[in-house]
Amino acid sequence: MSTFRNAQGQAHPTRTNTLLLGVICVLVLIVTMQIWLLAAALNTSLEGLESLKWPAFWSSLVLFASGAALLRYLPLPIRLPLRREVRESFPNAALARRTLGISAVSLALAFAVWFMWSAIPVRLNEAGFGLTRQQLFWLTSTPVILGSILRIPYGFIVSTFGSRRSYAAVTLLLLLPCLATAFAVKNPATPYWILLACAALTGIAGANFATSMGVINLWFPKQAQGTALGINGLGNLGVTIAQFTIPLVIGFSLLGADAPSAATSRPIHLENAALIWIPFILICAAAIWFGTRDYPAQPRTFASQLAAGRRLHTWVLAFLYFLTFGCFVAMGASLPLIIKEVFAKAPGGAPSPLLFAPWAAAIATVMRPLGGWLADKFGAGLITSISVGTMALGGFSLSAFLQPQAFAGFFAVILVICAAAGLGNGSVFKIIPLVLPGEAGAAIGIVSCVGALGGFAPPLLLGWTMDHFGSPAWAYTSMALFALVCLVVNGWFYLRRTSSTHC
Predict the structure, then answer these.
(1) Is 266 contained in some domain?
(2) 437 assigned to some structural domain
(3) Is 477 a residue whose pLDDT tops 50?
(4) Which domain holds residue 229?
């Protein structure tokens, strides 16, 4: 321990409290100035005044780093120690790990189906559909609705019908949106309301998340649940898989004759974006049925699981997950259109939306198991605070990178935000079985439902601000302010040492 720490540990309590008060006052001042500077950067970004924008942005980063450095001078009792693990028996380790592997792959497939409507709208008008910008944003947002609402019953069925039967059934149901979408997008004369209905039906794929996480939560002991749920969350890579795969497969025919593009003579086969997943759906359903078993537990009725909806922490965690997972969903769904609309006049040519957008979802997915592992080791409350705080800073910072020539900076900040969101996704799910141990399955359904709804509003808000202000700056700033509120909520319930649910 340093000389400073030894002296601080022996200091009179009044002196220590005075130090605490002084450090907090300085941190509050730094945060206030940072928000002011970022507001200045936002204002100049919208008005096109370059003289103040960059000095304000870099000054904000310097102030943030200074505030982080001051944290070491806080009194020792506030600093969180390495958490002690409570070991539980793990008799079915081999079966649990096999179930985890099959579940992660099947979840990736479900996310690929769910997010196929994030890549399809980018090419709809080229294929002959005459849709407005707002109609396209609605198509990217609509799958979130059903995928969110169904997560509640999808979370309940695991404890009612068994893990194997539940997961196999919901995986087979993915055939419905794939077939419906394939036939809808094949004909440019298809009415918009049918396209919207197909996008909404695709939401059932997003509900698979609650079933998958409920299955994994049953099979792993508490000391490994954060890591296991985080690894299962690698299924979010399905977003990246869809956004990389769809542009490749729509260039050749899998079904029917060629349909020429409205913009070029090359054919566009948007139906392939849905048909490509059908054989994998059948393979994954078979793997679940023959490769896993129902968890040996007494079945529970839906009514008994509804008690989770009466728990305060179910809704507190849903509020936090609304931010972290909602950010992941919103970025995956809307980023291709944002890149296409905002950076169309970038020097050297517009960046390809379907080339860059998948990386945002990929980094969020890769960070999710790291968030779960760090939560196991250092506490979920601490990791969630780091995640949410970084998202707030990144949201404010995006306003400095919304000019056509600033795509590199914009994309770098997006990657930082998505990495922080992935970290938070893993740590929030670690909290669920800790504070709601007897109702974790049902709570997962509710929390994941609200979290997925967090991906519905941002794309619409982005489209609205672009239509009215010509820039998504105010939408990103609103998201950053919401992240600050989440930072306070998490600090009160899960980071504060005197809280009964400190974790």
Answers:
(1) yes
(2) yes
(3) yes
(4) 93-495
